[in-house]
Write a structure and sequence with these properties.
globular, four-stranded mixed sheet, about 350 residues
Length: about 350
């Protein structure tokens, strides 16, 4: 089993990255604020807009370290990586299936069933732990819709029909978000999903978590030799990591939504950690990002038993295990792709 990816996050917008021998050097206003040896890293995620030196990019390429650039809202901007590794036969199989609407639909169903089952588990847990304070009637209506949608998914005939079901259930699921926010309700609330830019504090946190999760899934897919840009549910689009987006569907509620709700309900993050821009968009302050990333890394170190391989793994390894299972499925080692189900 591969160890958890060691990722360096650059959150200061004024940071510049350069090379000193075999080290990454981070400077702000020409003052060095940190350095890391290249050999301990497998990825760099930059939220800065100043950039990095060409010499450092070459060093990252030589050592197989992938560099992702995100804008101030946490949206993907660009990615720099070296040669694509992996089995060419595996990628050719991936491309053939992606071009076959029926085969793609069979895989996509599992992504969305995993998403719905795990979303329902998040609601179930909320009822179990805080049922006396929640609108249980609303949650029951949504849970019933989610249950009924699984049979509809199994019998749907086209990808467009599947997307329609997924959109309908996602809208119903998000109607429950305000019920799951137990504290700081005046500062964290959910009216509707907004992105590019997020229009409230809660959406800013959600988008940030989904962006990090997408990056980690993308890295995991490349690690096992798959092309993260060719998916089975999300359509092809230049610059879109469609397969990574496919495969985080089943993980959003468990790794993203629950994490954000925990930060809010434990009051680890408050309204002072955000900035409102003139266009109505909401930005997370640098200190808020640092706290978020620190807690994100702690969460990734927690140990669970994976429901399919029945081995204890760190939470941060879930994307890698799922990518490996997708690879095994495409090679014909297992009969179908098994989505991750929360226990």
């Amino acid at each position: 089993m591969r160890k958890l990816l060691n990722t360096l996050y650059i959150t200061s917008p004024n940071a510049y990255l350069s090379r000193d021998g075999e080290n990454i050097v981070v400077t702000v206003d020409d003052a060095e604020i940190g350095r890391r040896p290249i050999h301990i890293l497998e990825g760099i995620v930059c939220f800065n807009y100043i950039g990095m030196s060409p010499s450092l990019m070459r060093l990252c390429n030589e050592h197989g370290v992938t560099v992702s650039f995100l804008n101030q809202y946490g949206s993907f901007a660009a990615r720099v990586h070296g040669k694509i590794n992996g089995n060419v036969l595996l990628r050719r199989t991936q491309y053939r299936i992606a071009d076959d609407s029926e085969l793609s639909l069979n895989i996509a169903r599992n992504f969305i069933i995993g998403k719905i089952v795990n979303g329902k588990k998040v609601l179930n847990r909320a009822v179990r732990d805080h049922g006396e304070t929640l609108d249980k009637e609303l949650l029951k209506i949504v849970q019933d819709k989610m249950n009924n949608s699984i049979e509809r998914i199994k019998s749907c005939a086209t990808s467009d029909e599947l997307r329609g079901i997924e959109g309908e259930i996602s809208k119903s699921y998000f109607q429950c978000m305000n019920e799951l926010i137990l504290h700081q309700k005046d500062d964290f609330y959910f009216n509707e999903r907004s992105r590019r830019p997020p229009m409230d504090n809660f959406n800013a946190l959600l988008s940030y978590s989904y962006t990090l999760l997408t990056h980690e899934m993308e890295s995991a897919l490349e690690t096992v030799g798959l092309d993260p840009y060719v998916g089975f549910f999300h359509t092809d689009r230049p610059g879109r990591v469609s397969l990574a987006l496919d495969m985080i569907e089943e993980l959003r509620s468990y790794l993203g939504d629950r994490f954000v709700l925990t930060l809010i309900n434990r009051k680890q993050i408050d309204k002072d950690g955000f900035i409102a821009k003139e266009n109505g968009g909401i930005l997370m302050k640098d200190d808020t990002k640092k706290l978020f990333l620190s807690e994100w890394q702690k969460r990734k170190q927690e140990v669970i038993e994976h429901p399919f391989i029945h081995e204890k793994i760190e939470v941060g390894l879930i994307p890698f295990v799922q990518a490996s299972l997708m690879s095994r499925f495409l090679r014909g080692d297992i009969d179908e792709y098994p989505p991750f189900f929360v226990s």
